[in-house]
Amino acid sequence: MAPKQQKYAMRVPIYATSSIPGTAEVTIRPFKPEDQKVLWDIWLSGFDETLRDMAQKQTLRNKYYVAAVLLGSFGAAAASHFGWLSGGVALCCALTLVFGLMISPHVKFFNMRRELRVSVANGDMSNIQANWVEHSDREFWVAEMEGQAVGGTGLHVGASPHPGPFKSKEPMIFEDNVAYLYRMTVDPGVRRRGVAGKLLVAAEELARAKGCRAVNLATASVPAMEMYTRNGYKRVASTPYTFEKAL
Q1: What angle do CA 31, 35, 36 make, to 5 degrees?
Q2: For a surface tag, which of 8, 148, 163, 170 has the fewest beta carbons within 10 Å of its beta carbon?
């Protein structure tokens, strides 16, 4: 049974992992039903983190944002050179515009999250047992440290219908001899401790055993892109977010 849907708070609760020692061993094992709540929370946190980064980048690329920064600088210079009285109007207008665009990333983030809320709530991560474990062409692993689930990922083999809450605007082409990695998620408290790397190894070993020629994945997270690149994945030229590793 899927967990009771949580309200989208500013911060999704994360299970405490700060008590896990730095020398703790990472164990990779199959998913168990009791892992659902923990993985759901961790994945939602990472999802929000990615959306927030995307909103920030889109705002910084906005030409109006750049214009506002320049206008703010001009207003401050005018107030300093001509005196606060004569430059005050320019400064007030500039500061108002800059302030408005400073909160633009947050507004964009909440708008993006609201649009995706229903899809995420009914997506594959809301019920890993039904959407992953009970499918013969899928596998889901959990990373465990000191008895706590701290991350997970899923692998889908072949071109049969794929998991996921989102429908692509463009037709997606899947291959029978390619394995597709989904839902890589690691608790922020244990990142950069080899958790994602060990989950990748488990997925790649299964892909080889199934006779796949490559593992394919998509991510919009810059830290995740860096991690995949370190592990031998290369960006697919046709899309900015897709990576692949030949086996």
Answers
A1: 100
A2: 170
